[in-house]
Design a protein that fits this description.
Elements (H helix, E strand, L loop, with lengths): L6 E4 H13 L3 E8 L2 E6 L10 E6 L2 E6 L16 H4 L3 E8 L4 E3 L7 E6 L1 H14 L7 H8 L2 E5 L10 H4 L11 E8 L2 E8 L2 H7 L5 E2 L2 H14 L12 H7 L5 H6 L7 H5 L6 E7 L5 E8 L9 E2 L2 E2 L4 H20 L9 H4 L7 H11 L2
Parallel strand pairs: 2-8, 8-9, 9-10
Antiparallel strand pairs: 1-11, 1-12, 2-3, 4-5, 6-7, 6-14, 10-11, 13-14, 15-16
């Protein structure tokens, strides 16, 4: 059996890993620079990785910056999450014609390999597994994509200004669910990656890439870097019983205060790696001879989200913000056994009003004392 012992992969070896995955039939999805951001896209080569690029983030702020080294994973979360490949933003369900012909849309099941999945995003995939792939009525499309997934995780050693995964228990070390996990290291000894192997498939793939044995001192140093990152988070969720705090704050004036700033634009739900809500819509030709049904993402910030016969239940911005916040940090625990937030900080960076979920939670928790 191929070894599962930690190994060392050099920078050229990382490019080789991408080539091996492509040769094994995987579509490799990883970070790359495009449109003034580090985005996720299909890679044809490891040379497309964002070598030497980092980001500076803040509430309502995201900017690329040049690093003083060639790190490829020296950046925090960008505007996209891996969710879009497992749970696409828009997906055709079926076609129907006037003569009654009904044709289910072919459900393409890409064989994906995700390269560069952080601990927070790995935890987000685990959350989606509970929501969409467990229980009595799993989402078949999600389940089929998930079954063939290969994950190369990355342990974080440089948390971003908006990261708070430590307080959510999701990082900076990648938790379970990966095939291979990389810890990037750059020093006088060169640019390299400590590789942890978690599955037989991971060991098989890595066996096709030149590696060297990881010395105990190298393993210890890499682990120390990741542990140290836990103390350098840019944010933290308050240490409080948030489901109880939110339940008791149902009538808090804080909802109106945040609503005075919130644009109900739904950016936070679109970039969130765990938001999963969808709706369906029918599209017909002008001749009425052909119709299609599509599934697409939807947000609880949309006015029609709570529509029932006679009108929408949540018409105010404060009620819609409270719904999102209460579900994400409160009632998600009752439904799925844990929080719906993984501490990636995307909702803070991509909120045009700069609303910070950790600050709002701290205000509610402080008011409850």
């Amino acid at each position: 059996m191929t070894s599962r012992e930690p190994a060392i992969l050099d920078r050229a070896g990382l490019d080789g890993l991408v080539d091996v995955l492509i040769g094994a039939g995987y579509r490799v999805i990883g970070p790359t620079v495009r449109d003034a951001a580090i985005v996720l896209d299909e890679l044809a080569s490891g040379r497309q990785l964002p070598a030497g690029w980092g980001v500076t983030t803040g509430p309502g702020h995201y900017r690329l910056r040049r690093r003083d080294d060639a790190a490829v994973f020296g950046h925090s979360a960008g505007p996209q999450s891996w969710k879009r490949y497992l749970h696409p933003p828009r997906r055709k369900l079926f076609d129907a014609d006037r003569d009654g012909a009904f044709t289910p849309a072919p459900d393409e099941v890409p064989k994906y390999a995700f390269l560069g999945v952080r601990g927070c995003d790995l935890a987000a995939i685990a959350v989606l597994d509970k929501v969409l792939d467990a229980g009595r009525h799993p989402d078949g499309s999600y389940a089929r994509r998930r079954r063939s997934l290969f994950v190369v995780a990355v342990n974080c050693t440089e948390p971003g200004e908006l990261c708070f995964c430590t307080s959510m228990g999701t990082g900076p070390a990648a938790g379970p669910g990966y095939d291979l996990a990389l810890t990037e290291r750059i020093d006088a000894a060169g640019h390299r990656f400590l590789v942890d192997v978690a599955t037989d498939e991971g060991a098989r793939i890595l066996g096709h890439v030149p590696t060297t044995t990881a010395a105990p001192a190298e393993v210890a140093a890499a682990r120390k870097d990741v542990t140290a990152a836990a103390g350098r988070m840019g944010r933290a969720m308050p240490d409080a019983n948030l489901p109880a705090v939110i339940r008791d704050a149902r009538e808090s004036p804080q909802w109106e205060e945040v609503a005075s700033r919130c644009l109900t634009c739904a950016n936070c739900t679109m970039v969130c790696p765990t938001c999963f809500c969808t709706t369906t819509e029918d599209v017909t030709e002008l001749t009425d001879d052909h119709a299609e049904r599509w599934q697409r993402w939807v947000s609880c910030f949309e006015l029609d989200f709570s529509y029932v016969h006679g009108g929408s239940v949540r018409t105010s911005g404060s009620s819609r913000y409270r719904q999102w916040f209460s579900h994400k940090l409160g009632t998600w625990h009752e439904q799925f056994g844990g929080s719906g937030c993984v501490g990636c900080g995307r909702c803070i960076a991509w909120c045009p009003a700069g609303i910070d979920i950790t600050e709002e939670a701290a205000k509610l928790a402080g008011g409850a004392r």
